[in-house]
Specification:
This protein has helices at about 10-20, 50-55, 70-80, 90-105, 125-130, 145-155, 160-170, 180, 185-200, 220-225, 290-305, 345-355; strands at about 1-5, 25-35, 45, 60-65, 85, 110, 135-140, 200, 230-240, 245-255, 265-275, 280-285, 315, 325, 330, 335-340, 345, 360-365. The protein is α/β, with parallel strands linked by helices. Strand 15 (about 330) and strand 16 form a beta hairpin. Helix 3 (about 70-80) runs parallel beside helix 4, helix 4 (about 90-105) runs parallel beside helix 9 (about 185-200) and helix 5 runs parallel beside helix 9. The N and C termini lie far apart (about 50 Å).
Length: about 375
């Protein structure tokens, strides 16, 4: 049996614990770090992180507390102590990718983060495999279940945005403050991570423009339906011939008969195009206790089985959104609809800054 520790015992941490506790893997949870010791877990739970760091039998630490701090400090300490780390923390990985990967390499250990984008979907692990000996030219996908739930409900039930958002919050899909989801920030972290894994290029999340769905309304879906379209929030990556990349997040108008349009409720769908494998698509639950906890355990098992890591030379990405073009749908607060000519994502970002608050902008699918 291989001893592991779990930091944080919320949704993801408890999901990983339950998966290991089933006894179907060669793993054993020796320690769980939380703010307080819970009844029934006195034998393994601690409030002192040093108990995990100082235990030489613990080979893998699973970080599931979320956020930047103290997650960053905990993860760095574990890596420097010679312990492998697995995490579902997209905010941490997107903002500290290079630091964490280089710290792991310097200490002869690995950090894995498959659940950080796609939840239960083996998305990042597939990217890692595909990048070995191949080049990933394009990524596009629905990477946020909350916004997909909202858009699907508005499309299928002709519902108002505020009503569907409240339903998503009641079901636990959306936070009390839903800004990260509806403003596209969550997808921005995930597309940054996807770029990191696909290329070894690191892109600061704040450099990636994100148009969200905060201002989408029932009237937009009425217009779309008349055109045989619906709307999905998509994260995008493009690799250009000179090595520059385009990275952006935007609502996109897709055919009602397209693969993206068929994705319902809080499910995710993400696609890649590789120079050797062609087009691949991955569909499934993008979040949740069991899918995400299970994916975290899969990363532990990969480390236990000594799955080799891809060695990248880390460089800053040259993000250039001036070479990727779309036509855009623009609906201002007074209800007026304008369709632009084909313009770059960069130009669309500049245009958006000049529009009145409450304007909804979406790209037409390529």
């Amino acid at each position: 049996m291989l001893d592991v520790a779990i930091i944080g015992f919320g949704v993801v941490g408890s999901g990983a614990y339950d998966t290991v506790a089933d006894g179907r893997t060669p793993l054993r949870v020796k320690k769980v770090l939380d703010l307080a010791v819970r009844p029934g877990f006195e034998g393994i739970m601690t409030t002192d992180y040093n108990e995990i760091l100082s235990d030489p039998s613990i080979a893998i630490v699973a970080e599931s507390i979320g956020g930047l701090h103290p997650a960053r400090e905990f993860v760095l300490s574990a890596l420097k102590a010679g312990k492998h780390v697995v995490t579902a923390n997209k905010l941490l990985m997107a903002n500290c990718y290079r630091e964490l990967m280089e710290t792991a390499a310097a200490n002869g250990v690995c950090i894995r983060f498959t659940p950080a984008a796609g939840g239960g979907i083996p998305w990042l692990s597939t990217l890692r495999r595909t990048a070995r000996g191949g080049q990933i030219r394009k990524i596009q996908g629905i990477l946020n279940g909350t916004t997909n739930f909202i858009l699907d409900k508005m499309d299928q039930k002709a519902a108002d945005f505020d009503d569907v958002l409240a339903e998503a919050q009641a079901l636990g899909y959306a936070e009390k403050d839903p800004s990260s989801d509806i403003d596209g920030l969550d997808v921005r972290y995930k597309i940054a991570l996807s770029c990191n894994v696909a290329t070894g290029l690191t892109a600061a999340p704040e450099e990636i423009p994100a148009f969200g769905i905060r201002y989408i309304r029932k009237c937009d879906f009425e217009w779309m339906k008349a055109q045989g379209l619906t709307c999905k929030l998509l994260g995008n990556y493009r690799l250009h011939e000179d090595g520059a990349v385009s990275l952006f997040v935007q609502p996109t108008l897709v055919s009602s008969h397209s693969l993206f349009a068929s994705v319902e409720k809080n499910f995710n769908l993400v696609q890649l195009t590789g120079d050797r494998v062609g087009d691949l698509a991955f569909y499934g639950q993008g979040a949740g206790k069991d899918p995400t906890g299970f994916a975290l355990v899969q990363d532990m098992l990969d480390l236990a089985e000594a799955t080799p890591e891809v060695a990248y030379v880390y460089k800053e990405a040259a993000v250039d959104n001036s070479r990727t073009f779309f036509r855009y749908y623009v609906r201002t607060p007074d209800g007026a609809v304008t369709l632009t000519d084909s313009i770059s994502v960069c130009a669309a970002q500049d245009l958006y800054k000049t529009l009145p608050e409450g304007t909804f902008v979406a790209a037409f699918a390529e």
